[in-house]
Specification:
Blueprint (H helix, E strand, L loop, with lengths): L6 H21 L15 E2 L2 E2 L1 E2 L4 H8 L3 E7 L2 E8 L2 H5 L3 H4 L9 E7 L2 E9 L3 E9 L2 E2 L3 H8 L2 H4 L5 E9 L8 H15 L7
Antiparallel strand pairs: 1-2, 3-4, 4-5, 5-10, 6-7, 7-8, 8-9, 8-10
């Protein structure tokens, strides 16, 4: 039982707790910069990309979005997707996109691009090198934990924003930081960032 004098305060707290649910689930308040994964250049680093035929249903089930591309650039498979469920994009994307491969402990490579430094998450294994970058609100995410902590208040009632995942996989390299996977990934990010938003932000 709740004492009568606490009922108004309890009602206010419950109402506040419902705000994020109403905003994101029922009302669906979202904001978009107008970009899509499809604006990534077909040719990167002088290599023509070929669509892999990745299933849209698979992407929807694993990442909760239909906005994606997957292309083969020489020996590099490039996957780019955008979605509003950030956790589904940043939480170990290699488990789905590099299934069955074993990697050493991940580390961060700070890659230089025409748009500034990018935090590239690196995983290197015996048969493959994987790298990916996460873009949210024009900032690249280095630590998902810090990212979640920083946005927890702004997303309570504010509109949801898209996260972009850039993911590249290539055969193992003696120098992962200089691998073709990193080169194609950086080229894809440059291509994406060079396109002006369709909506003024």
């Amino acid at each position: 039982m709740i004492a009568g004098r606490y009922l108004p305060a309890t009602a206010v707290l419950l109402a506040l707790a419902l705000v994020p649910t109403i905003v994101h689930t029922y009302v669906g308040v979202r904001t978009s910069d107008g970009r899509t994964s499809a604006i990534v250049a077909r040719e990167i680093q002088g290599v023509e990309g070929v669509d892999t035929g990745r299933s849209a249903l698979w992407v929807k089930q694993n990442f909760g979005t239909a906005d994606f591309i997957e292309r083969q650039y020489g020996d590099v498979a490039l996957f780019v997707t955008r979605g509003y469920d950030a956790k589904r994009l940043y939480h170990h994307p290699e488990l789905g996109l590099a299934r069955g491969r074993r990697f050493e402990l991940p580390y961060i490579l700070r890659a230089s691009t025409p748009h500034g430094p990018v935090a590239v998450h690196m995983l290197s294994g015996e048969d493959a090198v994987v790298c990916y970058a996460l873009l949210y609100d024009r900032e690249f995410v280095e630590s998902p934990l810090r990212f979640e902590a920083a946005r927890i208040l702004t997303t309570l009632a504010g509109p949801a924003q898209e996260m972009t995942l850039f993911f590249a996989r290539a055969p193992a390299s003696a120098k992962p930081n200089e691998s073709s996977a990193v080169q194609i990934l950086v080229g894809a990010i440059d291509s994406f960032m060079s396109q002006p938003p369709a909506v003024g932000r």
